[in-house]
Design a protein that fits this description.
By secondary structure, the chain is an all-alpha fold. It has helices spanning 2-10, 13-30, 43-47, 54-60, 69-88, 95-116, 122-136, 155-167, 171-193, 204-209; strands spanning 141-143, 149-151. It has a two-stranded antiparallel sheet with strand order 1-2. Its main location: endoplasmic reticulum.
């Protein structure tokens, strides 16, 4: 039990509680302790009945059943693995920045969910975080099923194709990729390559709640701004969107 406790508290803060709430709420819905219909995102109930908790519970709840249990476990693995890598890598020592990115991705999921009648937000939310990590670590080699290995930049698209072939779906993954791309663009490409403002900078009150620390960690570096050279020199400085570490993304 102490080993589990040590592992649990070693998981970064936001990843830990995101994963915990996901498992707890999904189990509550699975065993009918609370009717799961109260957890899903429903436009009419949210707007007209003022059930304001639904955008939050729709993020954490996933309907576990004989046909969805394995997919739920895969989602939990991706959540734990790639959220942890982002939180201890690119956002190491900057909890407010990571939380603000999560809030932005969640808000996009909620808006799209209300517009297209999407009751469960776990899939696009997890894929959006995975996509940001993959963009920051494009050249990292990840492993997939059956021993296949490829660069991380292809992983979101592999997951999209995989679900498209197996279940005929793919829309959730596509939405996650879209949201993750918008977040990555606003966080890194827009301010650094286009000279725009940093639109996803957390407000001061979040910095006070989650102050920066001196922790320095893991994987992923922000894209570097283009540096023009003198005439006759080399072209623009190259990007560094991910260190060339080799990881197993099993």
């Amino acid at each position: 039990m102490s080993e589990f406790k040590d592992w649990y508290y070693s998981v970064p803060f936001f990843t830990r509680y995101w994963l915990t709430f996901t498992i707890v709420l999904s189990i509550i819905g699975r065993f009918g302790l609370i009717n799961y219909h109260y957890f899903v995102l429903d436009f009419y109930a949210f707007i007209y009945k003022f059930e304001i908790w639904r955008p939050i519970t729709a993020l954490f709840f996933y309907p576990i059943g004989p046909g969805t249990g394995f997919h739920f476990l895969i989602n939990c693995y991706f959540l734990y693995n790639y959220s942890q890598r982002l939180e201890t890598g690119m956002f190491a020592g900057k909890p407010a920045d990571y939380f603000y990115m999560l809030l932005f991705n969640w808000f996009c999921c909620v808006v799209i969910g209300l517009l297209v009648n999407l009751p469960i937000l776990m899939d696009p939310m997890v894929l959006s975080v995975l996509y940001v990590w993959c963009q920051l670590n494009k050249d990292v080699i990840v492993s997939f099923w059956f021993g296949t290995r490829f660069k991380a930049m292809y992983l979101p698209w592999v997951l999209l194709a995989f679900n498209l072939v197996l279940s005929g779906g793919g829309m959730m993954e596509l939405l996650g990729i879209l949201i993750g791309h918008v977040a990555f663009f606003l966080l890194f490409k827009y301010p650094q390559e286009f000279g725009g403002p940093a639109l996803l900078t957390p407000p001061a009150f979040l910095k006070q709640i989650f102050p920066d620390t001196r922790y320095v960690g893991g994987f992923g570096t922000a894209p570097q701004a283009r540096v023009p050279t003198r005439p006759g020199g080399t072209v623009f400085g190259g990007h560094n969107w991910g260190r060339g570490h080799t990881l197993g993304g099993n």
